[in-house]
Amino acid sequence: MSDIERAEEAHGQPGTTLARPEGGVPDRFENPGLPPHKHRMGDTDPKAAKRAERQVAFFLLLSIIGSIGIIVSIIAVKYDGSFERISLSTKAIGLSMFLSLFALGVGAVHWAKTLMPDDERIDMRHRQRGTTAEREEAVAILKEGAGEAGLGRRPLIRNTLVGALALFPIPAVFFFRDTGPLPGNQLSVTMWKAGTHLVKDPEGGRIRAADVSLGSVVHVLPEGIEEVDHTLNEKAKSAVLIMRLDQSLLTEKQNDWGVDGTVAYSKICTHMGCPVALYEQQTHHLLCPCHQSTFDLTQDCKVIFGPAKRPLPQLPIAVDDEGYLYATNGFDEAVGPSFWERG
């Protein structure tokens, strides 16, 4: 290694351009020092500092109001299954959460910009574990920083900050509570029962067996679902897919529960309840887009890939005297996710 390379390694980084005197050994860069510190109004004017303190406290109070607003929105806006109530609840919670987060952030930034120390300092590198004196000095610096932050001298900021931070996580408790109890055996009960006609989703109208072409898939719901209370809940449980295949590809159960190769299966994935809405016509596979669970339609919707553990439940169907499809019974097992209690 040359003298110049050794000097670069000792005084800079390899490849760094250094000033080289005639002797050939480069010198260190000249230390430019720190720029002159510019004092803020709060540093020199006690009134300005007090005004900034009140401004910070104001934003922290807004954050407290926002956190309380989240809780009030969850409790006050009761869910009745309508889109209007869902929209109102979402907007109220969203605006309150925005106020809580935004005001807390603005208050913290304003506090840092106007009241916390902003002068630059140099902390020289040293070995990882310092001496006892250095450690005591570090503790003293931390205490000094805490003192300069003004928590001890500015009780208004300290108290409002404690209030904002204490209230901020509380809405999470109400969020979890608002999810409601586990469904118990509710997934075992749907609107499907003997004699219920299949209607198209979302346009409505009964379906003729002759209109279901080979290789097609139709999204269906039980007739009369729009007239019941909690329509959204019932749709989530009762959504069904019907498909028509060559009868030679189907199992004995599928042919018994189907009509001329047309079979009906729950649209609700048995993993996490996502809608199974993708049908591969060539492979006869149903796919869940959420976690890629794949069901083989020619094997009683057996799971052949992905995290789902159960086949999709089949709905037994038949055709009436006018040629319309109807259910001969409800599902013989619960639809949807497998991790909930079943009855």
From TrEMBL:
<keyword id="KW-0560">Oxidoreductase</keyword>
<keyword id="KW-0679">Respiratory chain</keyword>
<dbReference type="GO" id="GO:0004497">
    <property type="term" value="F:monooxygenase activity"/>
</dbReference>
<dbReference type="InterPro" id="IPR014349">
    <property type="entry name" value="Rieske_Fe-S_prot"/>
</dbReference>
<keyword id="KW-0408">Iron</keyword>
<keyword id="KW-0249">Electron transport</keyword>
<keyword id="KW-0479">Metal-binding</keyword>
<feature type="region of interest" description="Disordered">
    <location>
        <begin position="1"/>
        <end position="47"/>
    </location>
</feature>
<dbReference type="GO" id="GO:0005886">
    <property type="term" value="C:plasma membrane"/>
</dbReference>
<keyword id="KW-0813">Transport</keyword>
<feature type="domain" description="Rieske">
    <location>
        <begin position="257"/>
        <end position="326"/>
    </location>
</feature>
<comment type="function">
    <text>Iron-sulfur subunit of the cytochrome bc1 complex, an essential component of the respiratory electron transport chain required for ATP synthesis. The bc1 complex catalyzes the oxidation of menaquinol and the reduction of cytochrome c in the respiratory chain. The bc1 complex operates through a Q-cycle mechanism that couples electron transfer to generation of the proton gradient that drives ATP synthesis.</text>
</comment>
<keyword id="KW-0411">Iron-sulfur</keyword>
<dbReference type="Pfam" id="PF00355">
    <property type="entry name" value="Rieske"/>
</dbReference>
<keyword id="KW-0812">Transmembrane</keyword>
<keyword id="KW-1015">Disulfide bond</keyword>
<dbReference type="InterPro" id="IPR036922">
    <property type="entry name" value="Rieske_2Fe-2S_sf"/>
</dbReference>
<dbReference type="InterPro" id="IPR017941">
    <property type="entry name" value="Rieske_2Fe-2S"/>
</dbReference>
<protein>
    <recommendedName>
        <fullName>Cytochrome bc1 complex Rieske iron-sulfur subunit</fullName>
    </recommendedName>
</protein>
<feature type="compositionally biased region" description="Basic and acidic residues">
    <location>
        <begin position="1"/>
        <end position="11"/>
    </location>
</feature>
<feature type="transmembrane region" description="Helical">
    <location>
        <begin position="92"/>
        <end position="112"/>
    </location>
</feature>
<comment type="similarity">
    <text>Belongs to the Rieske iron-sulfur protein family.</text>
</comment>
<keyword id="KW-0001">2Fe-2S</keyword>
<feature type="transmembrane region" description="Helical">
    <location>
        <begin position="156"/>
        <end position="176"/>
    </location>
</feature>
<keyword id="KW-1003">Cell membrane</keyword>
<feature type="transmembrane region" description="Helical">
    <location>
        <begin position="56"/>
        <end position="77"/>
    </location>
</feature>
<dbReference type="InterPro" id="IPR045603">
    <property type="entry name" value="QcrA_N"/>
</dbReference>
<dbReference type="Pfam" id="PF19297">
    <property type="entry name" value="QcrA_N"/>
</dbReference>
<keyword id="KW-1133">Transmembrane helix</keyword>
<dbReference type="GO" id="GO:0051537">
    <property type="term" value="F:2 iron, 2 sulfur cluster binding"/>
</dbReference>
<keyword id="KW-0472">Membrane</keyword>
<dbReference type="GO" id="GO:0016705">
    <property type="term" value="F:oxidoreductase activity, acting on paired donors, with incorporation or reduction of molecular oxygen"/>
</dbReference>
<dbReference type="GO" id="GO:0046872">
    <property type="term" value="F:metal ion binding"/>
</dbReference>
